[in-house]
Amino acid sequence: MGEGPATGWIALLIADYSPAATTRFEIMNERATRMNLLDLPACQWRDAVSAAGLDSYRGDQLASWVFRQGVFDFSAMTNLSVAMQEQLADLLVVQPPAITQRFVSADHSRRYLLQVADGELVEAVYMPTGSRATLCISSQVGCRFACTFCQTGRLKLQRSLSAGEIVGQVLRMLADVDTPPTRTNVVFMGQGEPLDNAAAVIAAVQALQDERGPGLSWRRITVSTVGLVPELRKLAALGAQRPRLAISLNATTDEVRSELMPINRKYPIATLLGALRELTWRRRERVTFEYVLLGGVNDSSDDARRLGRLLRGLPAKVNLIPWNPVATMEHQRPSPEAIEAFRREVLRTGIDVLVRYSRGADIGAACGQLTAASSAG
Ligand code: SAH
To answer: What angle do CA 127, 131, 135 make, to 5 degrees?
Structure first.
């Protein structure tokens, strides 16, 4: 195809396009504006640009600007003529969320307040370790699951993010650091419940693995969930593209878990672990169980032993997260001695276990603190 004017192409694209918009009317509105290319995996950018009237190889050039150079503005793409830049800009846009604020922790992690097209704020955290980095991203604005120990739940669900808004958080953070990391891990552990926004999260997980895009391996991507069982199966259906899984377990009895995490009434521990037992695990793959330690609630030696029993037979490892105090919540962080005793007791059951102290607590970036606060703490 030559680089002529655009013709009736958009119907073609719309079939693959899954914006946050859900009603027909909203989708038509999206059509009236421009499509965010980040909603499509980079392997589809050839089709997108040829539908806009450019030769399809221009799609690869575009992907190289965006994913290799961190350039998002067509007018800065010097191997495209001004005419082509304008042709693209008529119909398409590469729009990662914009940085509105950046908080840098004493431990060098950074919390970003990012603004998406409709003005909502999302939050993402960049955590460097030597030359590597872990990027913690949000899947929704707020969260509907109301876990008693987590501040994000207090925001309620504002809305789900589109695939492009999710992938865009990664791009925006990578473009913002002086030296890109030698190895990038992405964890869906920011605001929101990823599996409550499964379609967009699955599209984002695929886009992150696209070789013309960020090209991350499944081993570098972790989706963390409260345990929505049907959506967990959908994620598992990605097969070789399935990301690593992390499960927020946080308790060893249904009584306590339902108290802490109301969703447990719908998917109790046995149902959740049963679904995990049905999965096929890849070589060296392990599933992480996150366990927020709450003094006097879930940190007894009985809990530690039950945890070992529950996880037996699964390729499991446990991350103990000492509770990060968040305003107006009644819980307590156990003493360092109690944390260490719990860790040893779990280890004795034969399960690998680490204590994960959250980073960025001084800038409101630690687990459970993400509320899009526009001040540091
Ligand atoms: N909704 C998903 C993704 C968020 S991950 C999920 O729950 O898995 C956020 C992690 O931080 C979860 O494992 C959660 O249990 C943990 N967390 C929440 N509030 C916390 C707090 N105040 N202190 C420590 N960890 C917390």
So the answer is: 25
Name the catalytic one among 30, 123, 165, 231.
123
Number of domains the chain is built from = 2
Q: Is the pTM of this model over 0.90?
A: yes
Q: Which residue has the least CA distance to atom 9 on ligand 1?
A: 189
Q: Which of 45, 62, 93 lies at the terminal end of a domain, its last residue?
A: 93
State the Cα–Cα distance between residues 117 and 121, nearest whole angstrom.
9
Name the domain boundary from 93, 120, 146.
Answer: 93
Q: Select from 246, 324, 255, 330 the least CA-distant residue to 290.
A: 246
The parent domain of residue 82 ranges over 5-93
292 lines ligand 1 (CB under 6 A): yes
Does residue 195 share a domain with residue 54?
A: no
* Model confidence band, residue 377 (pLDDT cutoffs 50, 70, 90): low
Query: Do 185 and 330 share a domain, yes or no?
Result: yes
Cβ of 226 closer than 6 Å to ligand 1, yes or no, is yes
| Atom nearest to 143 CA in ligand 1 | 1
CATH code of the domain in which 205 resides: 3.20.20.70
Which protein residue's CA is at the shortest distance from atom 19 of ligand 1?
Answer: 368
pLDDT in tens, 184-223: 999 999 999 999 999 999 999 999 999 999 999 999 999 9
Contact between 48 and 56 under an 8 Å Cβ cutoff? The reply is no
